[in-house]
Amino acid sequence: MSAEHHLFHVTREKLKRFIATQVYPAEKQLPAPGDDEGYGRTQAMRHLRAEAEREGLFNLFSSLREDEFGFSTVQIAELAELTGHSPLLAQDAIGSLNPDAEVINLIRRFGTPAQRDRWVAALAAGEAASALCITEPDVASSDPTEIRAAWRAHAGKFLLSGEKHWALGALNPNLRLLIVLAITEPEEKRRRRLSLILLPSERSGIIIGESATVFGYGNDARGGMPHIRFSDVEVDENDILGPRGQGLATVQSSLGPARLFHCMRLVGSGERALQLMCQRLISRTIRGKPLSEDALWMSRIADSRIAIDQSRAFALSVAAKVDASGLEAAAVDISAVKAILPEAMARVIDMAIQSFGAEGMSHALPLAGMWALARSLRFSDGPDEVHKAVVARAELKRELS
């Protein structure tokens, strides 16, 4: 076994043990969705983070640790699956919860030395929090080139105006930075008009409203998802992340691997759901027989196992293609994974909910939250329809060539 593979094996076993012995017990200690205290400010959450740091698992998926670990895309995907057994809690505990984890990677990759010095260490340590401000209320999210938020020149600087909603992270009490996708090059072609702007939260003119919910979940662990209005917020060229006019390309560069890892976390959620479903069916009897021996439920168990194994194999094969040939070569395959896997895992989780009856929909179990995450991923990082169109265009191109 090579040193690199040994390190991965040790890390995987350590993460598996941490989730089983630390994360699962903490699930029942956290506040219910909508509780004012929120995930991140509970004693249980602070304890988990301290334990993760002691185990060497904190910021595990961050590019800050690339030199230390150097894991392949396949290996990171396998670790991501483990965190999906308790998706929000496990990610938060090891410091890999978006938006901060994604923002750290973006700034390290595209930021100037001054931008990296100002933001990376503070975000990684949890001293500062960030928010992603991309989606707009009056624009079809499937076509980001229609974004309307824009800056205009004023007295040697620029004034940013516009509206965003589903601004992930913007209600975190430690919010210090907003990453805003906006028009800075109005005369350019559509895909070259937008830039990413690093906007310190103390700037005047930033008006943060109420948070949206997803099936009743407020996403407190990530800092909510509020509506934000930018009213003549002063910015300058030093606030641009990456090349001007390349905001879409900058964002897309981080989404490919992120989509795979999101999907692999759902595979982990599917595994946990199937485990809970089997335990439930074994413990419940009807007419003197365990429900696990009922033909209908045996069929559902089999369907779930097949769907999980198919999904994992597909996602890992695409991750291997990324490792072998690069992200661009695997772009269509990533869209295929994204189009099929969230829907498949949502069905598995839904069957597990059905096995528990009303309890399955409650906060007493992690299933309802898992289902909400799986369903929301059919919008996040691009809706199903967009990813299926990518796959279809590639297929038609092959036939026409």
Automatic annotation (TrEMBL):
Cofactors named for this entry: FAD
A single GO cellular-component term on record: cytoplasm
Listed InterPro entries: Acyl-CoA_dehydrogenase (IPR050741), Acyl-CoA_Oxase/DH_mid-dom (IPR006091), Acyl-CoA_Oxase/DH_mid-dom_sf (IPR046373), AcylCo_DH-like_C (IPR036250), AcylCo_DH/oxidase_C (IPR009075), AcylCoA_DH/ox_N_sf (IPR037069), AcylCoA_DH/oxidase_NM_dom_sf (IPR009100)
Domain Acyl-CoA dehydrogenase/oxidase C-terminal positions: 245-394
Swiss-Prot/TrEMBL keywords: FAD, Flavoprotein, Oxidoreductase
Domain of life of the organism encoding this protein: Bacteria
Gene3D superfamilies assigned to the protein according to its UniProt record, in alphabetical order: Acyl-CoA dehydrogenase/oxidase, N-terminal domain, Butyryl-CoA Dehydrogenase, subunit A, domain 2, Butyryl-CoA Dehydrogenase, subunit A, domain 3
Entry's Gene Ontology BP terms: fatty acid beta-oxidation using acyl-CoA dehydrogenase
All residue ranges annotated as the Acyl-CoA oxidase/dehydrogenase middle domain in the record: 131-232
Signal peptide span: none
SUPFAM superfamilies tied to this protein: Acyl-CoA dehydrogenase C-terminal domain-like, Acyl-CoA dehydrogenase NM domain-like
GO terms, molecular function: acyl-CoA dehydrogenase activity; flavin adenine dinucleotide binding
Family, similarity comment: Belongs to the acyl-CoA dehydrogenase family.
Protein name, UniProt field: Acyl-CoA dehydrogenase family protein
Species for this entry: Oryzicola mucosus
